[in-house]
DNA sequence: TAGTGGTCTAGACCACTCT
DNA sequence: GAGTGGTCTAGACCACTAC
């Protein structure tokens, strides 16, 4: 079973990529050109490319082609360093685009924070980039009482920094969940990738030091752009 | 773009699965039967099934067919409750099969623990099940000086329990990494799934309270069987 | 406008599972 | 032995990107 041609192809493509990464400037030749070079059809070639995509070695952008994936961003969800800080700390360039600002109810946020289903939230939808590649979209759902004028003043900065500096909120209790997912068409479109692309979904429910609900967020990352790292010391 | 037929198919399949899960006993009809029912080809049908597989709703076993995936196991990598304990705590049935016991060098383990590349380790390879579904394979690399007779006495129980009870080791410092992956043919075969199936790779490097290296392990989970959960309280 | 990736058709053979 | 999923062929059209 391991002698399937598409699996041999993945090995050949791996070597080809290693040797030509710089020369190609990160972009692979067209599928039809690669299929011809390896004397096979586009279907089989795409099966091999999909395997490498699953491994995180390459990725697709829209209809623009296949690209070699940059190194994964190392991310520790147990620390609350802002996105901008830890991206820069790894020598990369962060960027944020705000996609939507509104106030409305959202059942998953309400459930996660123990609030009634019709509880309204300030909703911030934003897309974040590393070195100009869009790597995640996220929705933040903030309890309006905790940050009343949030939507008037928000413009892409760190939300946690804002909550702490302007409203003095202390993000004491965090409940984090991570599951792999296939990006839904709506999320995929905002990340400029094909629907069904593998992703990682990270949710957080955050309460303050008096157990008052503050915020709930849902992140959708491209699966190949992330390495989750947790360092623990002391007793369990 | 969202009107692609295979995306409409995923919706229809979702409903079909919801309504017939019990009746089918968890196994979907044959691909050819489904393709005929939806008046399309196997290629397009499989594209829809692959989307649902990526979402974790269904999975494949070997050449046996498509099955509805059970609920994800919730797993907190920051706690050191053993696999058997937290599986049972969620009302599921754990099982472990030992695949290999040997002593040899392993460069990734050596690097992660700060030891020379030719450092030998006691190696335990095991496959773990939840409710009789194989959900992960893992390799454990233990520094022999810390547990000399390990391979003579090991028979599938909790390794961490053994290290604590028999050798008095205190697993104080843990460095954990998680990345999504596509299962390599060797791991896929041991999990009875097709090569390239989406997985989650979890690595741990463990030192004791005096910073002495004890153990390194590599887990390969089926991506749809896991929900990672971390609960944090107190200051950051 | 030319070329690309995304989608889809209509088959085929093989290795393997099930019974 | 029958049926299944895994793999592969040789095309095709369309929507979109890049120029």
Automatic annotation (TrEMBL), chains A, B:
Gene3D superfamilies in UniProt: Chorismate lyase-like, Winged helix-like DNA-binding domain superfamily/Winged helix DNA-binding domain
Domain of life from the UniProt record: Bacteria
Annotated keywords: DNA-binding, Transcription, Transcription regulation
CDD domains: WHTH_GntR
Chain ranges of the HTH gntR-type domain: 3-71
Pfam families: GntR, UTRA
Protein name per UniProt: GntR family transcriptional regulator
Natural source organism: Vreelandella neptunia
């Amino acid at each position: 079973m391991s002698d399937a041609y598409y699996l041999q192809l993945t090995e050949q493509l791996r070597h080809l990529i290693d040797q030509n990464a710089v020369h190609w400037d990160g972009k692979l030749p067209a599928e039809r050109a690669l299929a011809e070079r390896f004397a096979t059809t586009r279907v089989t070639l795409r099966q091999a490319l999909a395997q490498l995509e699953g491994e995180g070695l390459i990725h697709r952008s829209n209809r623009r082609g296949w690209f070699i994936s940059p190194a994964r961003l190392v991310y520790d969800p147990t620390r609350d360093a802002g996105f901008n800080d830890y991206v820069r700390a790894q020598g990369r360039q962060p960027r944020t685009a705000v996609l939507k600002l509104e106030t409305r109810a959202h059942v998953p946020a309400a459930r996660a924070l123990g609030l009634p289903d019709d509880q309204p939230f300030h909703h911030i939808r934003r897309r974040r980039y590393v070195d100009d590649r869009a790597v995640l979209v996220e929705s933040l759902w903030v309890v309006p009482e905790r940050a009343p004028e949030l939507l008037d003043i928000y413009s892409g900065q760190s939300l946690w920094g804002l909550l702490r500096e302007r409203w003095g909120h202390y993000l004491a209790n965090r409940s984090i969940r991570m599951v792999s997912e296939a990006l839904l068409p709506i999320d995929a479109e905002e990340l400029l990738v094909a629907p069904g692309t593998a992703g990682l979904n990270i949710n957080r429910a955050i309460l303050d030091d008096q157990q008052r609900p503050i915020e709930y967020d849902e992140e959708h990352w491209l699966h190949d752009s992330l390495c989750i790292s947790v360092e623990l010391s002391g007793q369990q």
